[in-house]
UniProtKB/TrEMBL annotation:
GO terms for biological process: regulation of translational fidelity; tRNA processing. It is found in: Cytoplasm. GO terms for molecular function: ATP binding; double-stranded RNA binding; L-threonylcarbamoyladenylate synthase; tRNA binding. It comes from the Bacteria. Its EC number is 2.7.7.87. This is L-threonylcarbamoyladenylate synthase. It catalyses: L-threonine + hydrogencarbonate + ATP = L-threonylcarbamoyladenylate + diphosphate + H2O. It is an enzyme of class 2 (transferase). GO terms for cellular component: cytoplasm. InterPro entries: DHBP_synth_RibB-like_a/b_dom, Ptyr_pPase, Ptyr_pPase_sf, Sua5-like_dom, Sua5/YwlC_C, Sua5_C, TC-AMP_synthase_SUA5. Keywords: ATP-binding, Cytoplasm, Nucleotide-binding, Nucleotidyltransferase, Transferase, tRNA processing.
Length: 508
């Protein structure tokens, strides 16, 4: 089947497109269309056969009921019975909008649409294209997300075509969606009403209108053994092809842990994806890093989540690490979808971080012009099991200078360079629990300890490498002296690397 694609603008709806799409739906066909949450796969909700086609196109298990979309509030009474009194207030506040309510169904709703249940889920979308289409189709359009079952929900018409091109009659392209996550589902058949799926409309917002609501305990976390009350929530949904793990902790720990995990995975030759935010983007060096939005406005994160999961699929990454997001407002819905995408795989940031004793290594010499920078560059070239920021600094650096020319000449002949180096003064900001300080000799170490009483993790290179070979001072001597110094440093730094790698393996 060839899928017709028609564009229309929300602000200037093409009536002809809507009429054509409405006719397809009335005849029992399938039309994908934009809503404010995600793209929906529309079918006439009152035709049993149309529901069957929906399940087939999506590859969706047929016990997973569809949400019926309406455009006019009066239509609710035609498909639902025993509608509780609070419904008016909820509808007045949140309809049209990203809220789905569940009621006892009336006889005109076929079991094909409700997955065999005696209840029906109903929503009134706010997207004007959706509303016009629903009216043109006769008032009742079932519309699950327009993706292949198990893939991330579509937030653009392109996503719909990726999954369902050739399998459905038509796609109405109305641009990107506004919210990006599926509607909040509220079960109105229980007292008090119960949230079965978190979304843009939160428990607090309901509370302001009708008082307390309850929450299906299976929504977050894998602890609950009970099946979720919304049948669809039991499937590993929204999932990318890659293994996705959510890293949890405070934000600083999450960043450190993800850096470490991404470094380790890259060393194994794996392609790693990282879900980061505007605020944390600059901290990552390894892996394919994607910016999901800003922590200042979690709506941006909701809007980009599914697109980013799809992009990682296209780039064929093996493993994705994601930061966690605050569980406030729409954050709950974001974490709920992320957890499902991850199949509940969570990693404690603190546990990962604890495994790494040092994160930064600073070689300290007197002027930071030759031996220190050479040692730092040599260590950068080593095959290290864990990632470190490797620097060199001097005890007396009056102004920044490039590396000594003879040192650079020796490094160049060994295939390295100090061209990026500028000498820097050591100061007490560099004294941290996870910083290893390697002094070039006893004199440098003593000066550091004399000047900084709170200094920790300070060793000479010899001490740390457990090798007493003295590092000669080539300053003012011919090139050959720099060459000899290089040879000694190379051996000692090799031993430093071995020791760091032993720490990485958990040896003391
Ligand atoms: P989707 O249309 O892809 O957003 O999925 C619809 C969601 O609504 C699924 O999780 C369904 O299980 C849920 N749902 C639809 N109808 C009912 C119902 N009558 N009772 C409980 N959950 C429902
Ligand atoms: Mg869905």
């Amino acid at each position: 089947m060839e899928t017709i694609v028609k564009k229309t603008d929300k602000n200037q709806i093409d009536k002809e497109v809507i009429r054509e799409a409405g006719d397809i739906l009335k005849k029992g066909g399938l039309v994908a269309f934009p809503t404010e949450t995600v793209y929906g796969l529309g079918a006439d909700a009152l035709q049993e056969e149309a529901a069957k086609k929906t399940y087939e196109a999506k590859g969706r298990p047929s016990d997973n009921p569809l949400i019926v979309h309406i455009a006019d509030y009066e239509d609710l009474k035609k498909i639902a019975v025993n509608i509780p009194a609070e419904t008016d207030a909820l509808a007045a506040h949140f309809w049209p909008g990203p809220l789905t309510m569940i009621f006892e169904k009336s006889d005109i709703v076929p079991y094909g649409t409700t997955g065999g249940l005696d209840t029906v889920a109903v929503r009134m979308p706010s997207d004007p294209v959706a509303a016009e289409l629903i009216r043109a189709a006769g008032g009742f359009v079932s519309a699950p997300s327009a993706n292949t079952s198990g893939r991330p929900s579509p937030t653009t018409a392109e996503h719909v075509l990726e999954d369902l091109g050739g399998k459905i009659d038509m796609v109405i392209d109305g641009g990107s969606v506004e919210i990006g996550l599926e509607s909040t589902i509220l079960d109105m058949t229980v007292e008090p009403p119960m949230i079965l799926r978190p979304g843009a409309i939160t428990a607090d917002m309901f509370e302001e209108v009708i008082g307390p609501v309850s929450v299906d305990e299976t929504i977050l976390g894998s602890e609950s053994k009970k099946p979720p009350k919304a049948p669809g929530m039991k499937y590993r949904h929204y999932a990318p092809k890659a293994r996705l793990a959510i890293v949890e902790g405070d934000l600083r720990e999450e960043i450190l842990a993800i850096r470490q995990l991404a470094y380790a995975a890259s060393r194994e030759g794996k392609k790693v994806g990282i879900i980061a935010t505007d605020e944390t983007l600059p901290f990552y060096k390894y892996g394919l890093v994607k910016d999901i939005g800003t922590r200042e406005n979690e709506k941006t994160i909701a809007r980009n989540l599914y697109r980013i999961l799809r992009e990682f699929d296209e780039e064929d990454v093996d493993t994705i690490y994601s930061e966690s997001f605050a569980m406030q407002g729409i954050g709950k819905a974001i974490m709920n979808r992320l957890e499902k995408a991850a199949g509940h795989l969570r990693i404690s940031a603190a546990a990962v971080v604890k495994e790494q004793r040092y994160r930064r290594i600073i070689f300290v010499s007197s002027a930071d012009s030759a031996r220190g920078p050479m040692a730092a560059e040599l260590l950068r070239q080593e095959d290290l099991e864990q990632e470190y920021v490797i620097d060199s600094m001097g005890i007396v650096v009056l102004f920044p200078e490039p590396a000594n020319q003879k040192a650079e000449a020796i490094m160049k002949s060994a295939g390295m360079t100090l061209a990026q180096h500028t000498s820097r003064q050591f100061n007490d900001e560099n004294l941290q629990d996870d910083v290893l300080i390697l002094a070039i000799n006893e004199a440098a170490k003593s000066k550091l300890l004399a000047e900084y009483q709170n200094a920790v993790n300070v060793y000479t290179i010899n001490e740390f490498a457990e090798d007493e070979t003295e590092i000669p001072d080539p300053y003012g001597k011919p090139l050959t002296a720099y060459g000899e110094c290089y040879e000694v440093l190379k051996v000692l730094v090799g031993k430093v690397a071995e020791k760091l790698n032993a720490f990485a393996k958990g040896e003391k």
